[in-house]
Amino acid sequence: MRVKELGTRPAPNAIRELFSQVVRGHAPSISVLRREIPYWRERGWTRNGNNYTGSYQTAYAAFQGQIQERWSSIDFFLYSPSRQIRSHSHWTCFAPRGDDWYLVHMARRPKDVSSGIITIERLITEAYEQ
Amino acid sequence: MKKLSVVVAGTGQIRDVEIESGTTAGDILAQLNLADYLLSKGPNEPFFANAESVYDKVKDGEKIFASTKAEVGITVCA
Predict the structure, then answer these.
(1) Which of B12, B71, B72 is the closest to A37 by Cβ?
(2) Closest approach of chain B CAs to the CA of A75, in angstroms?
(3) Residues B54, B19: contact at Cβ < 8 Å?
(4) Residues of B in contact with A39 (CB under 8 A)
(5) Which residues form the domain of A87?
(6) Could you read off the pLDDT of A69-113 as tens digits, one per residue?
(7) Closest residue to B70, CB basis, from A39, A59, A109
(8) Which domains does chain B have, with CATH numbers?
(9) B9-22: string of b/e by CB count within 10 Å (b at 16+)?
(10) How many CB atoms lie within 10 A of CB A124?
(11) What is the ipTM, given to two decimal places?
């Protein structure tokens, strides 16, 4: 079979990179440091003194929240709860604080802000799955 | 054996552990001196019971959370 050469062109970058790696060997691996940050910060909450603002996030919905950390307790607030939360068996544990903000009563108080956020996020998930 | 990274939710501290088949959540918490904590795979997952074997429910190298016990409720609705 006759072959007609039509010309030359550079190989795509991916192929050139592959060949150059074979010649050079692998680049040294890079250790990626793990971030050791509290859950509240990992979830994007911000802290101003003893007050935290952010959102309770679940696969179903996210709700604006505020947390006030006092020396003896931590108060968790949730803004504008949805119909699903209002239908949950623990809705009576939400005490209105005006302007559609609600204080979430804790029968068993978490010892840190992050554990409280996890607890409320779990309750929101339950409310949507019930 | 499986390796696990236990994230202490309050501080973000990561404690690496290696567990054998049959290791319970209580075993891990006791080993890490986190007696008042509960383990879970995340906020959308249930807590592991203290006597529950964790080994079969986690993947090697997985990150799980340790958070302090808390419950939404008041006397009339808890």
Answers:
(1) B12
(2) 12
(3) yes
(4) 7, 9-10, 12, 65, 67
(5) 39-129
(6) 988 889 999 999 999 999 999 999 999 999 999 999 998 889 999
(7) A109
(8) 2-68 (3.10.20.90)
(9) bbebeeeebebeee
(10) 26
(11) 0.78
